[in-house]
Amino acid sequence: MLTKLRPVLLASVGIAISGATSYADNPNSQGREMAVSLDGLKWSSCGVPEFPGCEVAVLYGDPTKGASAYLVRIPAGGAFPKHWHTNSHDFVGVKGTLVFNFKDGRQMTLRPGTFGFWPGGEQMEGRCSNEEPCVYYDHQDKFADVHVLAEGAPAEGHHTGTTTGAPAAGGKQQ
User: Fold this and answer.
1) Residue 171 lies in a domain
2) Is the pLDDT assigned to residue 137 strictly greater than 80?
3) 0.85 exceeded by the pTM?
C-alpha cells in the first residue's frame, strides 16, 4: 500500500514552490518568446514533504499565484502517493517514463514527447521508471497546489492530508 511507496513526486503537478528559481525576471518571459536550455536550469525542491527528491525549475510565472510553466524532475524509481490538484493542468514528457494510476484502475503512461491533461480534483498516484530520472513540462492557467491524501482517505478527492501551494488549505480560487 502507500506506506510501502517511497513518495518523491509532485506530479503533475501542483507544486509548493517557495524559493524556487523563476524566469519571471527574464525579459523574454514577459509576453515575448523565450528559449531556455535544460542544461542551464536551476532546480529547487518541490517543497512538499511527502515528495522527497522531487525538484522543480520554474520557466515563467509564479505557480503559487497564477499561470505558470515549470519542469518537474523525479528520481529514477521514485513513487508518489495519492494526491490531487485544485486546477487542471497540461504536461508533456521530457525524459524517462512516468506511469500515473487513476482511482478507477486505468493507467496513463507519460514518455518523452507524450502530451497529457489532468483535470482538477482528479486523484493520481504512480511511479517513475527505474531506468532514469523523469522530467516533465507542466503548465497551469491558474495557481498550482497539491493535496496529499492520507492513507485510507476517501476516494472522492476530499483533502485529508497535507496541502501545499496557494491558496492555503480550504481556500478557493476566485
Assistant:
1) no
2) yes
3) no
